[in-house]
Write the structure tokens for this entry.
Amino acid sequence: MSERHSSVTTIPTSNPRPKPKPISSKPHFMPSPMAHLLPRRPLLLPLLVSSLFLLSLLALLHSPSSSSSSSPPSPLSIPPLRPKIYVYDLPSRFTSGVIRSYHLARSASAGDASLKYPGHQHSAEWHLLTDLLNPSRSSSSPLAVTSDPHLADLFFVPFFSSLSLIVNPIRPANANPATPAGYSDEEMQEQLVEWLESQEHWRRNNGRDHVFICQDPNALAKVIDRVRNGVLLLSDFGRLRPDQASLVKDVVLPYSHRINSYQGDVGIEKRSSLLFFMGNRYRKEGGKIRDTLFQILEAEKDVVIKHGAQSRESRRMATQGMHSSKFCLHPAGDTPSACRLFDAIVSLCIPVIVSDYIELPFEDAKAKL
């Protein structure tokens, strides 16, 4: 991702969202096992998503424990020692097996269905795991990986929950409903929790020191009430209740951008459009504002606003539009956030956010640090 940053403009669309109530009990951090699912090629540089997550997690997870659930959280403090994280060595069906199932569902041969993780907007689960398992990761990282679960403060559960959701391709409308899909994400979620509940370190603290990445808004939906004590790494809180997730214990991650980074000269001289948006015009919940924005803006001069679905051609057009516009519109979708915000940032196009309930990644990390 480019190191150049864009400004962000936020436009509220209704009354501010009330602050979610803190969860009833704060997580305690205890020890747990280490994985040997090493990537084939260790990452040469720490990935942005990993480093930002680690910084935020360090500040977030080391607040003093509160003896009363009704009292306000104590001020956060950073201990002098780095917290240690243990990466579970999950059965392969939860990691490489998910990748293999994804490729096989798309008619890939067994030989081709290797450990090549398919790129998509919720790829942080892959980047984070490969960074944690990188044997040459920086010693200056605020988080240390340990192979001894008894020394661990945190336990990372490397289930590819977002990829698991899309293993089965979208079936055509005329498909035979009696034909089994072959892979069940819900069954995989159930099996994961059953496996965790049999582990010593989960039972000792009821999962409060376990870290799950569930970036897709529907990831782990089947078992969310069984893992809600843990630390959730997600995109937003749009489909979760306050008793399931909140900024008290969870971390909002950035999406993986889906268009190419802008490589031209910095400046506005070559940006012919004032404002650009391309996406689905009709959405649910807060995304209903999109239709109103279309009605207001589609006839305006220097504004490009188009309806478009996900496709390779749409991505090409979005790349061209964002790279040639000064501002990029970012309205809410079915949930408060979308990868379009990060597409705009790597395009050096100033995002204009129209979403009441959006939580930006790591927006409170500076205050905590």
User: Anything to note?
Assistant: The CA atoms of residues 63 and 205 lie 17 Å apart. Confidence is low (pLDDT under 50) at residues 1-70.
